[in-house]
Amino acid sequence: MIGNTVLTSILSMAGLxxxxxxxxxxxxxxxxxKEDPRVEGIEGALPGLNCGACGFASCRQYAEALAKEEISxxxxxxxxxxxxxxxxxxxxxxxxxxxxxxxxLHCGADESARKKKAIYRGVKTCLAAHNMFGGEVSCAYxxxxxxxxxxxxxxxxxxxxxxxPKIDKYKCVACGKCVASCPRNLITxxxxxxxxxxxxxxNNLDKGPETRKACSVGCIACxxxxxxxxxxxxxxxxxxxVRYDKAKNIANTEEVINKCPTKCIVNEKPxxxxx
Length: 275
Description:
With 275 residues, this protein is α+β, with helices and mostly antiparallel strands. The chain is 35% helix and 12% strand. Helix 2 runs antiparallel to helix 4. It is elongated.
């Protein structure tokens, strides 16, 4: 009798398992969401880095959003123009070519120019040093030199050179991760083209004499650049700035750079690599 009871229990459990499995199978067929067949092709055209620069956690999620036409194909920073063109073909849409963006560091004080106020023995990150009374750097606005931006860049576009980040404009895809990683907001994303790219490598808002005490290459807001460029450079809050949309109209770039008393104006000529 005991054997019959055990057998009955086993058969009952097996029957229930088969019943619920059948129910689940039917429900799955009824409720499953059909995926756009283009998703696979879109994902295959993406770099597959899952870097998050597009705003999605993975290339798969970005591909799904593209298939639903929820986002533009030009959000893939890592792929550049080649990937954007492939995506445009798959989605049968036309994307206007955009001016390239790159990350720009607004500080030119490397180890040789950076003045120190103390010896910092805390955690060697920019964020930690910034929160600990600015670490050892005298300038309250300048680079701290602990390479948080280098660690944040997924494209190996930033290297430390003499204690200062150097951004490779060829490799930079303007993903913005370095911007978010800098506790002093020293990095911005700027639109550039194949012409000379001129900018101010300083972020100090103190008046000239105070800036001089903290850094030998800081902007002292003398206004020379503003006079030489007819207002394309301008001074605001004790700091020279550039109207980037008009910077290509500067005809005397070398003069502007040479006459800057602290040499905080920088000129670069990055080539275009799409984006």
